[in-house]
Every structure is written in C-alpha cells, then in structure tokens.
Amino acid sequence: MNEREQPKPAGKPPQHLDLQSRELTVCIDFKSVECYLTLPLVQSIATESKHLRLRLLPFLVRGPDYGRNSTKPDKQLHLQQKNAYSRRMWRYEASTPQINLPLHLPSFELLNCLDTEPLLAGLLYLNEIGKQIEDQTRYALAVFQQIFCTSTDDHAMKRLDVTDIDHMIQSTTGAHGYLEWYALEDRCELVRICTKKFVDDHQIFAVPSFLYGGGKGGEGGEGGEGNNMLLHNNNEWIDEKYLQRCSRELFSFRWSSHLLRQRLICGGHLQESSVQRKRKKEKDGGEGGGSIPGKLFSVDCFVDIKSPYAYLALAPLRELREEYPTVAFQFLPFPLDIPSYLGYSKNKAEDKIQSKRSSVQWRAVRYAYADIRRRHRVRELMSGAPKKILFGTSKIWNTWLESSVLMFVQKKRPDLVDAYMDATWSMFWRRELDVENKDALLEVLRMVGVDDVLDFEEFVQGEGREIVASTRRKAWEDGCFGVPTMIVSSTKDGKIIRPSPFWGSEHFNALRDLLNTLVGVEDEKVGGVARKASSLLSKM
Predict the structure, then answer these.
(1) Are residues 283 and 254 in the same domain?
(2) Are residues 51 and 146 in the same domain?
(3) What is the mean pLDDT of the chain?
C-alpha cells in the first residue's frame, strides 16, 4: 500500500518538529562521519530503552564556521593535525565491536561539496508519514554507506538524484510516495527551517546533537528550565539552565554518549546494568601493574590552564597514573591559540563585550562552559569527587607565563606538580588568580611549598619560555593540536618508538587499550580488543 501525505503550508516548520515529551531527538547531517559512527548508539538505545520515543531529524551543517579560512600558520597546522588525527581515530573506532561499521573516508573537500539537503528531506518525509526509528536508522545507514563505503574518488553521491533517494527509501523502509511529496513544495527549504528552529530553540551548533525531554509522568519529572531532576536512586541530576531549553536538555557531539546514557538511566528509560560496566581496580595496583622493570613507557599529558576540558581531565588522568604504575605520566604545557578557531572576545568596562566571534562560535563556547559544569557535577554525584567551582573567563588569557611556571616546578620540585596545579587551576577558574602576573604565581609557589625561587624570574622570562616553546613545537610534530592531549611513547633497545597521540577525555578508553597492550594486560572490559587496538593505532 502506498503511503502518501498531503502537503504542509510552505515556509512554516513541519508539524512533526513540535518536540513531544519523553523523547530523544538526534540531529544529524549526512556529510558527518561522527553522525555515521553514532548510528549504532542510536540503535542500541532504541533496543534497550522503554517508554522513550526516538527519531532522527536534519541539522544542516554549512561552511567554515570555525575559522577554516584562516591564513595564520598556527591555524593551518592545527587543521592539518586535527584532520589527520580524526581520520586515524575514526578508522580505529569504526573497527571496534561497539561500532563495527565499514568505513572508507572521502576527502574533506569532497564532503564539504556534498549537497545533503534532498537526503535530509528524506528524514523529514519519514517522520511526517510516521515511520519509527528502526526505519529511520535503516534509511540513514543506507545513505551513510553510500558516502562512507565508496572506495573511489569518483564518488557515488555526486550522481544521486531525487529518484535514487526515493528508491533508497522504498528499499529500506517500504514507504512509497517520496517523489510526489518532494515535488509538492520546496522540501529543502523545510530542511533549512528545521535547522533554524534547532538553532533558535536549543542553540545547537554541531552534529550529532541529542535533545532529551524528561516530560510529564517520567521519573525525571518535568524536564523544563530551572527544575532540578532526580535520579532513580534519589541523587540529584544536573540543573544547567543554558542546556535546558523548551523542556529539552542538549548533549552535543558523539563523545557525549556516556553522559547521555547516564541521563537516560536517570529518567528511567535505560537500565543501569545495560550501560554501566565499571572498571575494577585492585587496591594493590595489580591491574596495569605489569612486571616490566623500570618505566619503559611514558604518557605526556599536554594541558593548558585556560581550557575547561583540560581542567576536568586532571583527576581522570591522575587515576590512570595510579592504574598504570609502570608507565611514567607527566603534565606538560601546551598554550592554546584559541582566537584562531573560536574567535576573540573580552569583557570591557560596564560589562560590554568586544567580540570577533561568529554566532556559531558563540554557541560553541557557551555550550562548552555549560557542558563542563554539568560533567563535573555528574562526576561529583556519581563518585563523590571534590566540588569544583568554574566560572567562564573574562577574556582569552595569555598562558605562556603560567606554562613557564609549571616547567619551573617540574625542574625544582617535581613532587609538588600536583599541588601546584591544584592550587593554580582551582584559583584561576574561581577568577581568583591572574595568570599573567608573575608575582601572583610566585605567591602560589610559596603557598604549595616551592621555596627555592631565587632564580624564578630569570627562569620564567628566559629558559622556561624557551622550554615551553620547544615542548610545544615537539608536541605539534607528534600530532598534538589541542588539549588535553595524551601522547604515548615507548622505548625499545634504547630507541623511541613512534608516539601515539590521544586527544580529549573521550579517547581515554582507546588510550587504555594501547596501555594494556604495552604493559601486557588484558583488561576484562576490552578483552582481546587491546592488542588489535595497538596494531591499528600504530599503523594509522
């Protein structure tokens, strides 16, 4: 039987964009590799969840919103490093049992040229005729595999027309009538209206993005702005107003999936046992201990005090250090050039803001600060971690001086690096420390017990700055382009084996896979994946 739908009034948001309660909306664009790798997550949630409506809706990604037209050498190198790293990690992650998808990566230039509006209109059609998430994901998977499983530069997507899309919809969902529906009005305009609605209502700026609504009657209570929501075990969920708009909570990027799953547990839509597999650590440090004499492996953890994500990563990195006592962990500075990719902004007198940021960059920055507060408060609730206060910074700080001071502590009192970082970072994020003031930083050194400071000023203005520049340059060469980045190195027969970088806390599990192989441990969670991971990561 043919499934057809009467046309909707042109220029108005489709009726199915009125988000209902107790649902998870996943915003995607077909040119995004991250969205492709997100589909198994969506499918698993659809299988495991109860009393939760899922759907895919379009969010059209356009143009160079993050300074991709910059001619600054640092920015050009940043993009080269990030693109190479992303392609390496996508290949690895696509091969893991959790995702297990075929992947052939076309060039970024080709992806940027793809017109995905007609394909995204197919999602609107499936939603409009009432097709469920299973049909939506089958269609999406077919589209993604046309893009990311074609092993030729003469890409198949260039030849797809509306008739081909109709055939894909018929073959994957059994629905007929897309051609007639598409011809009734400008459906690509509806895709653009959908995207604008998500921007206006929820401040979405990237894909994939997830919108979760607790709704009335759910265990999460009313999911509107300003309301605290309760966990099923009577813990308090996070009330971060910027992320909760129109009774929906925003989770952006695929690496928010763990946090999203925790939220679905709290709303009573997932069972804890199906999504939380906690890593067991023995008190005596048996796991990760190994039997290798000395520390033949090292992890250089590159951080910058002005990065909130680096701040949140400090505690998990120290836990990794305890987990792998045969591996040498070291915190090193990597001062960021934030204006090159997130624009420039600072507060002037009377709280006026001078800015050179696009609207997309502003949404990205505001989301980052709200997300980092949410993430730490979840960590507080789930693990009893110490409470952190985090205020947005009043300007983009020059952290070269503070980076030199960190190297001063590494030289004078390496045993006090943790104490120094705890003091400076917590004070900085409470807006109680000027990291461009050497006297203020000297006071922190004395406070944590670094007493040998006679050559402090000479070091931070001369040798220290040269060490930071050299360290940063070497990190670039090894693949670092942002923070936190963990670069794993190992030595064999006195030679340093090719370093492996891991960017962001979302790749801690991949880092563990490699460390487990290096120290000869088969972790109970990843099993035999560790050795495969080492092989894949070393070849990419």
Answers:
(1) no
(2) yes
(3) 81
